Amino acid sequence: MFVLTALVYPGVLAVLCVGAGLLVDRASRRFLPAALLPTVGAAALIAVSQLSTYVAPLAPATPYLMAAVAAGGFVLSRSRLTGLARRAQSWRWRLLVPVLAYALALAPVLLAGRPTFSSYMALADSAVHMMGADFLLRHGQDYAHLDLRNSYGQFINNYYNTSYPSGSDTLLGGSAFLLRLPLIWVFQPFNAFVLATASGPAWLLARRIGLDGLWAALAALTATVPALVYGFELLGSIKEITALSMILTLGALVALHRHWLRGPPAAAIPFALVLSGGVSALGAGFGAWVLATLVILLIVVIGDVRAGRQSARQLLLLAGAGAIITLLGALPTWLDVSGSLHVAQNIASSTNPGNLPKPLRWFQVFGTWLRGSYKQLPSGADLQLTDALVAITLAACVLGALHLLRIRRYALAGWLALMLVVWLALSRYATTWVDAKSLMLTSPLVVLLAWGGLAALRAGAPAPVLRAVAVPLAFVLAAGILASDAAQYHSSNLAPTARYEELASLNGRFAGRGPTLFTDFDEYSLYELRDLDVGGPDFVYPPVALAEGHGYPVELDRASPAALQAYPLIVTRRDPSASPPPSAYGLLWQGSYYRVWGRRPGARAAIAHTALGGSRPAQCSRIQRLARLATADGAQLLAAPSPELVRIPLASAPRPAGWGHERQWLVMGRPGRLSLTFLAPRRGAWELWLQGQIMPAVSVSVDGRPLASIAGRLDGNSLVPDTIGPLAVQLSAGRHRLSVVRGGLSLAPGAGGSAVLAAIFLTPAGAAARETIRVAPGHWRALCGHSYDWIEVVRA
Question: Among the three residues 456, 491, 526, which one is the final residue of a domain in this structure?
Answer without folding.
Answer: 491
